[in-house]
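Page 37, continued from 36.
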């Protein structure tokens, strides 16, 4: 038993002795964590362009968003608009719609129920688009997302905010969405 105590004291003293420098300074180290690799397509062969409504404020793009906008109404209510493009189908319709449903506190649905409420529309530049309008009137949250899949990539145009502001800017959002077009860079 005494030998165990002596070994513990020896280890503790060794740690104390070797962990301090002669100036009684504490040394700390900062290790830079690796940045996550963006999943956004970086080399888009064409440039996506649009016409922004006058009262929309453009925000800086991020590695997940090609563009971001903020819309405010007279009451200070704010809606967020984003344009994102990803490779492939990004998990599919069911996973994405249920993620958005969760963002506004709605329960998930099966794919059949999700597809019952989809609006299909042909956009002149984006091809077939699926439009999902999600509302939770209990907590006053809403999201509308337009999805276009083409050339093995998925484009999301999303607006989120209160049900009132989304209702108030629905025409502007439609105008914005219909203005989207690809310009060839080559």
């Amino acid at each position: 038993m005494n030998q165990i105590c002596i070994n513990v004291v020896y280890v503790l003293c060794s740690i104390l002795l070797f962990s301090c420098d002669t100036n009684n300074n504490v040394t700390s180290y900062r290790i830079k964590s690796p940045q996550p690799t963006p999943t956004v397509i970086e080399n888009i062969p064409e440039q996506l362009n649009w016409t922004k409504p006058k009262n929309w404020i453009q925000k800086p793009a991020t590695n997940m968003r090609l563009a971001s906008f903020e819309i405010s109404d007279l009451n200070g209510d704010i809606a967020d608009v984003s344009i994102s493009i990803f490779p492939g189908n990004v998990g599919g319709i069911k996973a994405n719609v249920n993620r958005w449903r969760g963002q506004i506190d709605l329960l998930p649905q099966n794919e059949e129920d999700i597809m019952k409420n989809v609006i299909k529309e042909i956009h002149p530049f984006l091809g077939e688009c699926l439009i999902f309008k999600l509302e939770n009137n209990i907590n006053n949250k809403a999201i509308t997302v337009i999805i276009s899949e083409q050339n093995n990539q998925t484009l999301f145009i999303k607006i989120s905010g209160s049900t009132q502001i989304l209702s108030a800017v629905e025409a502007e959002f439609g105008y914005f969405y219909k203005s989207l077009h690809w310009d060839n860079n080559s």
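Strands lie at 46-49, 57-59, 67-72, 78-87, 119-123, 127-136, 141-150, 153-161, 181-184. Flag for discussion at group meeting. The chain has one domain: 46-184.
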